[in-house]
Amino acid sequence: MNNLRFDAVETVLSRQKIDIPAPKGKPSSFYGQNVFGIKKMKDYLPKYAYEKLLNAVEGADVIDRELAEHISQAIKSWAIANGATHYTHWFQPLTGSTAEKHDAFFEPDSDGVAIEKFTADALIQQEPDASSFPNGGIRNTFEARGYTGWDPTSPAFLFETAAGKTLCIPTVFLSYTGEALDYKAPLLKSISALDKAATDVCQYFSKSITRVSASLGIEQEYFLVDLSLFNARPDLLLTGRTLFGHMSAKGQQLDDHYFGSIPERVMAFMVDLENEALKLGIPLKTRHNEVAPSQFECAPMYEEMNLAIDHNQLLLNIMEQVALRHKFKVLIHEKPYADINGSGKHNNWSLITNTGVNLLSPGKTPKTNLMFLAFFVNTIKAVYEHSELMRASIASASNDHRLGANEAPPAIISIFVGGQLSDVLDQVETPRIAKIVKAESMLWHGIPKIPELNLDNTDRNRTSPFAFTGNKFEFRAVGSSSNCASSMTVLNAIVADQLIKFKIEVDKLIAKGTKKDLALLNVIRKYIKQSKAIRFEGNGYSKEWEIEAEKRGLSNIKTTPKALDIYTDEISIKLFESLGILNRRESIARHEILLESYYKKIQIEARVIGEIVNSMLAPASITYLNELVENVKGLKDIGLPKESYSSQLNLVERISSLINNILEDTEAMRQERKKANNIEDIRERAIAYDEKVKVYFDQIRYHINKLEQIVDDSKWPVPKLRELLFVK
Ligand SMILES: NC(=O)CC[C@H](N)C(=O)O
């Protein structure tokens, strides 16, 4: 056993569960211990500074120089008292991961004596090199400057590794010329646009509503694979997914993994992860086995959206770190293995007022029901009007593999509202009611009082990309590896835009003398009619739905390069511009960045396939083929009749032709790659990678998988799927 594959399997079999000592006390006693949150601010800041900071976070005050000095000193004292040696601005560039550059607090002064220093300047602003991050042409190497700027609405935290502790300050990331080069800046702007638009609409119902915040609960699905097996698969190592591999005879068909008992080593990882997350104030609450073998999920409580997204990004960081302690690798790719479930990052979105009302929770009285209906129907209308933007917001090379199969929604954006609310919408829409409603006193005649809905009052539809689940919408199409700021910025923006339009229409009716509730109802009714096409309760995987969706005028864009087109459509550019979320230059740059990331990912996968086929799989198969040839020759030499070794001969022929296929296809793919690389226009290049290069992937995979099933198992050089999925 001298190949990497068997060494890896042996290593896994000898692994012991690793118990990391849990922090002392109950989870509630160490929750948030590594975060400079409200309570610690109160302890470390003078009273007036503390109050001013709270006001600033609420948007009612600004952080001036003096306040920033106070805060930087408070954060420094706390961080150093807790063992931090370095600090960093922590930001989310358009790479999809987080970025950090550490500076020591330590600084020698002019007398040669060292002190620990952290100024307001260091807190507020830093200058990373913007040209080395994706920037869509906004920054050149010779004009590289960019800025990170402190986000006081997301608390600083200590990131702990075996090597020490670093103070992390969540920041936005901008170019020197002011354009956003990250996910957070547009997200914050979209949150504030939505706050303004939703608060304005709330005034129809309650004057005490002065703020509406978007809340988000993020379910994170992932796979775990043993570190040794992972390292023995160059495709997993370099692309995060398996590019070939015959599906294990037993996969997920017995449904025996979902919610099953959690394997011991995995449980030790989960407990460790939860403790680390809780220390960082991430309210992780749920853990379970997902549907596919070796697939799992964790989910925190919902939080204010900006914080929820920071926490999800941070969670991905600590998952990676904690997994290594347990000799696992976390796979957050949307489809690490073909033919079994992929991983999503379901985004549970809602709107909460400063008075504590969930605007997407149907109420008990007609008045609160009307408020619910207004927000519910406007969200549906927004998604109907901008379904292509929603599709674009979840588009990536990796999510393309997931959409449309194995419990992941298809690429057609539709909304599932459940039977009960469908009935309510139908009844509100009925023209009969419109005729009856003449006066406010008769307003509710014929319209049911929406019953108080329990969470399980709507069914679940795993094929729906955007499903109402009782008191929130669940954007299920979002992929597990994405920074969901991308989809949430779009959702916030389109709903904000829709609410603004709604208010204009309602105000117009009121100005003409229509009573307020009736005006609201009339516009709601109109929207229900207009947006009907987006509502779909059936099976999103069926051929009938594709046909029906086309009839309804819904788009069905299956791959990323074309799905992204909508970002540069005038309507989208103006939408983001008018809400102050992205200017034209930023929209265009983002489009380019996404296209670039798309084709580069396919390019890397194509190269990895080439390398593995040429240097690992073809040679291993040829070695076995030669043995077979020797065998056949020997049998012939000793004078056996041909019929007695015809199967071996067949095998020789099959293996030889499969080897020939994979070598030929790999070479043809290389030629297509060369052609694609010469295409100047980035959109055309991305399309060429999709349509000319990627098409070879499945073909090559198919032939490799055939080979894998007939080549001598002891010669197959890389771990098989049954080992990746089941050897623990
Ligand atoms: N149980 C589930 O909800 C499965 C969801 C599925 N893994 C997805 O890709 O979204």
From TrEMBL:
<dbReference type="Pfam" id="PF00120">
    <property type="entry name" value="Gln-synt_C"/>
</dbReference>
<dbReference type="InterPro" id="IPR022147">
    <property type="entry name" value="GSIII_N"/>
</dbReference>
<dbReference type="InterPro" id="IPR040577">
    <property type="entry name" value="Gln-synt_C"/>
</dbReference>
<dbReference type="InterPro" id="IPR014746">
    <property type="entry name" value="Gln_synth/guanido_kin_cat_dom"/>
</dbReference>
<feature type="domain" description="GS catalytic">
    <location>
        <begin position="183"/>
        <end position="617"/>
    </location>
</feature>
<dbReference type="InterPro" id="IPR008147">
    <property type="entry name" value="Gln_synt_N"/>
</dbReference>
<dbReference type="Pfam" id="PF12437">
    <property type="entry name" value="GSIII_N"/>
</dbReference>
<dbReference type="InterPro" id="IPR008146">
    <property type="entry name" value="Gln_synth_cat_dom"/>
</dbReference>
<feature type="domain" description="GS beta-grasp">
    <location>
        <begin position="85"/>
        <end position="178"/>
    </location>
</feature>
<dbReference type="Pfam" id="PF18318">
    <property type="entry name" value="Gln-synt_C-ter"/>
</dbReference>
<protein>
    <submittedName>
        <fullName>Glutamine synthetase III</fullName>
    </submittedName>
</protein>
<dbReference type="InterPro" id="IPR052725">
    <property type="entry name" value="GS_Type-3"/>
</dbReference>
<dbReference type="InterPro" id="IPR027303">
    <property type="entry name" value="Gln_synth_gly_rich_site"/>
</dbReference>
<comment type="similarity">
    <text>Belongs to the glutamine synthetase family.</text>
</comment>
